[in-house]
């Protein structure tokens, strides 16, 4: 795959890559940055590789992804613990054309909302894990959305929690839903559960 990505005569627009090699493959990330024509990218690490990825390799991955300024859809799933909120904020800053973003990173908090709200074309945002967002953080995010976010859908695989031990109350969910509907005719799909 790396050889194909490095070939200057090849201009990919989509790439879906699932594999164990992602955790240690700096050459793959370097080659990925060569494909500036990419508009849709999915990277998924296998579970057994997640914890083996060194933080400096994660930094290199984010630097490479940040060079793909034509991305409209980015799905990063199964990312290691070394993939932090700062990485999410850096990607949001460097990939302004994103319309669809799936974030498979654990432990996100309200800190990421400001950077994500700066994505003026974002229409679909999916979180792959339970996150620790607050009702106030969700509402602040919604307030920062603009006309380019019309119809935005925010969803996730786990319940939205205020703190690790408390699921958002029905009243809070209703307030969030009412506000996103009013602001951009969007939806928050808050899946409940344990």
Percent in helix: 25-40%
Query: How many helices does DSSP assign?
Result: 8
Strand order of the largest sheet: 1-2-3-4-5-6-9
- Report on the biggest sheet: 7 strands, parallel
What would your notes on this structure say?
With 194 residues, the chain is an alpha/beta fold. Helix content is 36%, strand content 19%. The chain contains eight helices and nine strands. The chain has helices at 2-6, 26-33, 47-50, 55-66, 85-94, 113-117, 135-144, 170-184; strands at 14-19, 40-45, 73-77, 100-103, 124-127, 153-156, 161-163, 166-167, 187-189. The strands form two sheets. Strands 1-2-3-4-5-6-9 form a seven-stranded parallel β-sheet. A two-stranded antiparallel ribbon has the order 7-8. Helix 2 runs parallel beside helix 4. It is globular, with a radius of gyration of 17 Å.
């Amino acid at each position: 795959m790396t050889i194909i990505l490095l070939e200057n005569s090849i201009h990919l627009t989509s790439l879906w890559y699932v594999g164990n090699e992602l955790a240690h493959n700096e050459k793959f990330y370097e080659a990925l940055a060569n494909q500036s024509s990419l508009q849709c990218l999915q990277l998924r690490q296998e579970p057994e590789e997640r914890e083996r990825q060194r933080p400096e390799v994660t930094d290199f991955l984010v630097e490479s992804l940040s060079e793909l300024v034509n991305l409209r859809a980015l799905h990063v799933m199964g990312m290691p613990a070394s993939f932090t909120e700062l990485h999410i904020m850096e990607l949001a800053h460097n990939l302004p054309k994103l319309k669809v973003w799936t974030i498979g990173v654990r432990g996100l908090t309200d800190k990421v909302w400001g950077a994500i709200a700066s994505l003026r074309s974002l229409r679909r945002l999916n979180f792959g894990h339970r996150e620790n967002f607050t009702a106030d953080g969700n509402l602040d995010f919604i307030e920062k959305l603009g006309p380019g976010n019309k119809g935005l859908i925010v969803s996730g695989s786990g319940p939205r929690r205020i703190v690790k031990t408390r699921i958002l109350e029905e009243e809070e969910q209703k307030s969030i839903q009412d506000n996103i509907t009013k602001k951009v005719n969007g939806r928050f799909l808050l899946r409940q559960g344990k």
